[in-house]
Amino acid sequence: MGFFQPGDVALRREVLHGRPWSVTPTRVVADGPDLLVVFTPPGAVFGFPPHDRPHHWQLRGRTHWRGVGKLQLHRPGDAYSVDLYWDGDGRFKGWYLNLQDPFRRTPLGFDTLDHALDYWAPAGGGWEELDRDEFEEQVADGKYTAAQAEAIAATGVEVRAMLSAGDTWWDPAWAAWRPDPGWPAPVLPAGWEDYPLP
Questions:
Q1: Would you state the pLDDT for residue 145?
Q2: Spatial distance between the Cα atoms of 26 and 37, rounded to a whole number of angstroms
Q3: Where are the domains of the chain?
Q4: Can you tell me the distance from the alpha carbon of 8 to that of 26, in angstroms, rounded to the nearest whole number?
Q5: Looking at the domain covering 9-176, what would its CATH class be?
Q6: Partners of 72 in the beta sheet?
Q7: 42 alpha carbon, distance to own chain's centre
Q8: Engineering a disulfide at 79: which of 39, 155, 161, 178 sits with its beta carbon 3.0 to 4.6 angstroms away?
Q9: pLDDT tens digits, 108-128
């Protein structure tokens, strides 16, 4: 499977218990053997395939990405993405480490699964853990197996150690990135519900 080109639409699909759970269309910023970077712009419309466990955004009536967009950096094999956020005036707010399954390429984009447990490193320095309670509730509710929960917790330990040491791998120059103003919000292509798992 080849790499995407800048400006391509790539579908970020969450897969839960072997079935597609949610789909978000993103714009590819950069793609290569060591890094996949995608942008979720304001207005990107979510898709929710039929599932016996409805997605939490679906239950809350969220149909599209609101507010300013986010940039996501993915390294192959990492069980987290590094998401960048800006405020409405374009000022960089910080780095959000989103624990998730390592991404798996598909013909239309990539598959993953959000793990709820996250870490926020604001532009001014420091960091904090987020959503520990939500993660533990999801473990108790059966979203993850015991082995998956243990692996997610271990990733959290690694991320905390990295942030505490200030030994981060990503290029801080990404904070100055801005989307191409000519990019329209990506849309879900026809047949998005039916494309197979890799």
A1: 87
A2: 10
A3: 9-176
A4: 8
A5: mainly beta
A6: 38, 83
A7: 15
A8: 155
A9: 999 999 998 999 999 999 999
